[in-house]
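Morning!

This is the sequence you dropped in the shared folder:
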Amino acid sequence: MSARMLVVNADDFGLCHGVNRGIIAAHENGIVTSTSLMVRWPDAVEAADYARAHAKLGVGLHVDLGEWIYRGGEWAPLYQVVPPDDPPAVAAEVERQLADFRRLVGRDPTHLDSHQHAHREGPLRTIAEKLAGRLGVPLRHVTPGVRYCGDFYGQTAEGEPLPERVSADALIRCVETLGAVTQPRSPEVVELACHPGFDTDGVETVYSAERALEVQALCHPGVRVAVDRLGIHLVKFDEAPLAAAPTKT
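The structure's back. Tokens below.
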């Protein structure tokens, strides 16, 4: 296997029908190899049905504790599932979402991450690390040997639009940078995150119009040419030689 291994992971599978269609298009016609399922949303059933029938698409759990928006100089919740600073509530919700994932998909997730990277701090960090260790799967930002790249994203940190960041040219530059940084003998795996989709079907979310632009870029023939030219091997997480995230006790 090539040492240049790239997982192209689409977040938010199951959020709504339009996002599902965009992720499926970017997998079937583009470079997406993996996705992260939000099990709480009604269209998670549709997403899981597709995942069960298409084993080439890796599927992880996108832990969903809420979504926040930047307004008036501060972050405010669009919705909140449980208080993120309540460890027992967070732990119970994570186990509930894992159980729903298993019921819907019929297997364990190939990886773990979270909506808006909520697991990078607070109780969810420790809980997610323990779960990843228990399942033997990688956890975004934590597992050694996996470098996360979030450069392909059409907004600033405060939610201002940056459509030029999700063009085909921008994605090609991103792929070229990843190909140059990953050395031929390095065991490093890179995760390139993306958020493709079409319309968000009335779902209130901070990331909407940019999703269709991502689909176009991910499916652009020039992107595949760049991947092939650089010798990058597109993989799922369960195809890469990865250790699980370290278990916290």
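Headline: The radius of gyration is 17 Å.

More detail when I'm at my desk.
O.
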